[in-house]
Amino acid sequence: MNNSVKIIGAGLAGCEAAFALANRGVKVTLFEMKPIKKSPAHKTDLFAELVCSNSLKAMRVESAAGLLKQEMRILGSLSLLAADENSVPAGGALAVERVGFATYITEKIKNHPNIQVVSEVVTEIPDDGIVIIATGPLTDDALAVNIKNKLGSEYLSFYDAAAPIVSADSIDMDSAFFASRYGKGDGDDYINCPLEKDEYEVFHTELVSAERALLNEFDKNPNVYEGCMPIEILASRGVDSIRFGPMKPVGLTNPKTGRRPYAVLQLRKENVSGSMYNLVGFQTNLKFGEQKRVFSLIPALKNAEFLRYGVMHRNSFIDSPKLLDKNLSLKSDNRIFFAGQFSGVEGYMESAASGILAGINAYKMLTNTPPVILPKTTMLGAMVDYITNEQTVKFQPMGANFGLLPALDVHIRDKKERYKALAMRALDDLANVKELMD
User: Fold this and answer.
1) How far apart, in whole angstroms, are the C-alpha atoms of residue 270 and residue 413?
2) Each residue of 376-403: pLDDT tens digit?
3) What CATH number labels 4-160+314-437?
4) Contact yes or no for 328/338 (Cβ under 8 A)
5) Cα distance between residue 57 and residue 348, in whole Å
6) Residues 354, 359, 360, 365: is their CA dihedral positive or negative?
């Protein structure tokens, strides 16, 4: 057995994968282009550099982010060891001192006897041995082209233009109705959120005046979003522009009124179980708080729980539902694993968690033992199931949220209690399979 693995990228995912493998006795060669070359977002030569925020989100285990972190602790996360050593006060969130956090991880990786760090700009996927690609959303151009050529251009996205996603049980169905345009489909393909004229005019006014997120210089490409225009930009072209676009009411009759709505937002299933719905045609660059404020003006979304906000930025990722097996390896070449944001997860801890699992499954492949497929009731298992589910349509990256988890056997009306029960179930189910990780 060739007891070694090559990992490309020393971000959160790559470092977690290397740590998981090295602690299991595997020799790892970790390729990192810094300090030779940096992406536009990176400022230091350290590994696992946090570039957007120092917050790793909520600590409470009954939150989606907190549950994921607790699962990662159980799986031996390096990132959480670093976070514990470098935490700063942040209320109920886990926030870190960035340089200390990255320094801790860098030193642990460089000083591990089973890890060899190679400073090199990798331009091609190695053609032998097990490889984990964890190069992140700003993958270097030459390697991105090589990956694109291997996978096929239709399976790789270079820009992320995603609409928000809301929890199905937070949609006010007294203000919405199921229907497809002109009665096509199964009749429940879309949830339709109608607006009267006065409601639409208020919504339009707030939409065009809402505060937009600042773009990094490397995101300011005028050709990036052609064909997926931000809803607020389209709305600024005239008061009726989105009524003739994503919010057109033609072909729909509101059964509650017996007439066609003045305008309508359609929601489409984001997952097979129908626990999540995305806002069709609502790609947006509004700040997250503004998305919540403005989109909640739509009557059916007045109490909506946003599981993911819309984003528009440079974000290389693969069409993982078509490409990856449940163990995060390529269906077409199972010696190649993907981890981190390139694999279709969204967020710091989500990227790190996927790296742990990719590392564990690379070890399983080396030792000819069955892969680890976590229960869908765990947050990490549910995320991996989402990004590798062949039935997913128009795939977009996803972070941890309770909408990914299967419903409880008994419905709990109180949301806090329901989330707590989901978290306890997840940790119990993870404990039952923990021995498979070694």
Assistant:
1) 23
2) 999 999 999 999 998 887 788 889 999 9
3) 3.50.50.60
4) yes
5) 9
6) positive
- Is this structure's pTM higher than 0.85? no
Mean pLDDT of 119-134: 96
Give the integer Cα–Cα distance in Å for 194 and 249: 8
Q: Which uninterrupted H or E stretch holds 428?
A: helix 415-433
SS3 state at 133? strand
Q: Which residues contact 16 (CB under 8 A, 6 or more apart)?
A: 77, 78, 79, 339, 352, 353, 355, 356, 359
Do residues 162 and 396 make contact, with C-beta atoms less than 8 angstroms apart?
yes
Q: What is the pLDDT of residues 236-271, one digit of tens each?
A: 999 999 999 999 999 999 999 999 999 999 998 887
Residues in the chain: 438
Transcribe 205-241 into DSSP letters. Answer: HHHHHSPBPPPPGGG--TTTTTTS--HHHHHTT-TTT
Q: What is the pLDDT of residue 222?
A: 40
Do strands 190-195 and 263-269 pair parallel, antiparallel, or not at all (unpaired)?
Answer: antiparallel
Q: Which long-range contacts (CB under 8 A, 24 or more apart) does 221-230 make?
A: 221/159, 224/159, 224/161, 224/312, 224/314, 225/159, 225/161, 225/283, 225/312, 228/161, 228/283, 228/312, 229/283, 230/283, 230/284, 230/285, 230/286, 230/312
CB 161 within 8 A of CB 231: no
- The candidate with the shortest Cα–Cα distance to 400, out of 416, 385, 382, is 382
> Has domain 165-309 been given CATH number 2.40.30?
yes
Terminal Cα-to-Cα distance of the chain (whole angstroms): 18
Kindly indicate the confidence band of residue 427, based on its pLDDT and cuts at 50, 70 and 90: very high
**Contacts with 433 (C-beta within 8 Å, 6 or more apart), sequence order:** 372, 374, 375
How many alpha carbons lie under 13 Å from residue 389 in its C-beta half-sphere?
Answer: 21
CB atoms within 10 A of CB 121: 13
Region of 402 please: left (phi>0), alpha (psi -120 to 50) or beta. alpha
Farthest-apart Cα atoms in the chain, separation: 72
DSSP letter assigned to residue 53: -
Q: What is the pLDDT of residue 220?
A: 52
Segment holding 28, helix H or strand E: strand 27-32
Domain layout of the chain by residue ranges: 4-160+314-437, 165-309
Q: Are 29 and 122 in contact (CB under 8 A)?
A: no
Predicted pLDDT at 1: 44
Helix (H) or strand (E) holding 80: helix 78-85
